[in-house]
Amino acid sequence: TLPTHVKLVEVGPRDGLQNEKETIPVEVKIELVDRLTDAGFVNIEAASFVSPKWVPQMATSAEVMDRIRRKPGVDYSALTPNMKGFEAALAAQADEVVIFGAASEAFSQRNINCSIAESIERFRDVAQAAKQNGVRLRGSISCSFGCPYQGEVAPDAVADVVRRLRDLGCDEIDIADTIGVATPAKIHAVYETVAKDYPLAQLSGHFHDTYGQALVNIYAALQAGVSIFHSSVAGLGGCPYAKGATGNVATEDVVYMLNGLGIHTGIDLDKVVDAGEFISRHLGRKAASRAGNAIAAK
Ligand code: HMG
Ligand code: MG
Questions:
Q1: E strands along 25-123, which residues?
Q2: Is position 143 annotated as part of the catalytic site?
């Protein structure tokens, strides 16, 4: 049986925009987050406190966090690879910080410039500081279904990182398909393996749509009992350290499917479509959401 409620984490303002070449005005980023707040998300990944040399687009994260209109009950989350990032996130009053590692050594090196083991050591301080400051802690595992540099990734390699993030005290752990290569059987295999070590209710699915599999993979993960998913308005996005990776699954498509399944999300689809039109207009291209474009054309 499928879950009756799903928590959707909107990652468009972070994962969606981090790879854009042209600098997006901070006003546009703020309006995007505010529109998503109005649409009913309970968690919006709004910022990333990483090196501006590595990801220039996220350099305005502090200003975004400072000027968004915050709604009580909504978590505004931020990526924090190390203590420098955590201090910035704390100052910006992030409700949740994200430590992000990988299930593949090669990707860990390319993305955060250290090995998996080293990353866990860096995260230890961040995790401790988050607990001390009462900030929610989320962990993310890139390349859980395949890696652009090393290819196959075994479910046991994912489980190993899940256990390490669990031991750091993560309140939620994201199983990420960075390059969108998973298919439903792999989804079942990975969640079945990792759920032996960590509560299924606190595991999420963060699926990119590079191979057009994201929506069917969400359906497979729902069948496996997963009830937290990440998506990006207008299908924005791509990872700067995963060549050819496209955006996350489009939020509009996910909400449309969940609505059809009678699964409650608390999200106003029309408002998400409007937010998608807003940001796509700004970026000068059509939204990468089939449902969004169909609804907007009506
Ligand atoms: P490093 O060079 O090993 O770190 O980078 P370092 O500590 O030696 O610092 C080097 C320089 O960066 C120094 O500045 C630091 O001050 C600065 P300099 O002295 O040269 O002027 N620095 C920072 N500045 C601002 N904020 C910080 C920070 N830390 C150091 N927090 C580091 C290590 C992790 C910092 C670097 O590799 C980095 O920033 N990488 C960015 C990775 C990233 O953002 N990737 C995209 C997000 S992850 C993703 O999209 C995947 C996900 O969606 C899930 C999925 O789909 O798979 C989450
Ligand atoms: Mg991602």
A1: 43-48, 75-79, 96-102
A2: no
Task: Select from 50, 87, 122, 123 the residue to mutate for testing ligand 1; criterion: most ligand atoms less than 8 Å from CB.
Answer: 50
Residues in the 5 Å CB sphere of ion ligand 2 = 15
Ligand sitting nearest the alpha carbon of 48: 1
- CB within 8 Å of 156: residues ≥ 6 apart: 193
- 161-208 residue pLDDT tens: 999 999 999 999 999 999 999 999 999 999 999 999 999 999 999 999
Q: What is the number of the ligand closest to the CA of 77?
A: 1
Dihedrals phi, psi of 235, to nearest 5 degrees: 65, 25
Q: Which is it for strands 7-10 and 228-231: parallel, antiparallel or unpaired?
A: parallel
**CA pair distance 40, 259, nearest whole angstrom:** 14
Read off the pLDDT of residues 54-70 as tens digits, 9 standing for 90 and up.
999 999 999 999 999 99
The ipTM (two decimal places) reads: 0.98
Q: 191, exposed or middle or buried, with CB in 10 Å at 0-12, 13-18, 19+?
A: buried
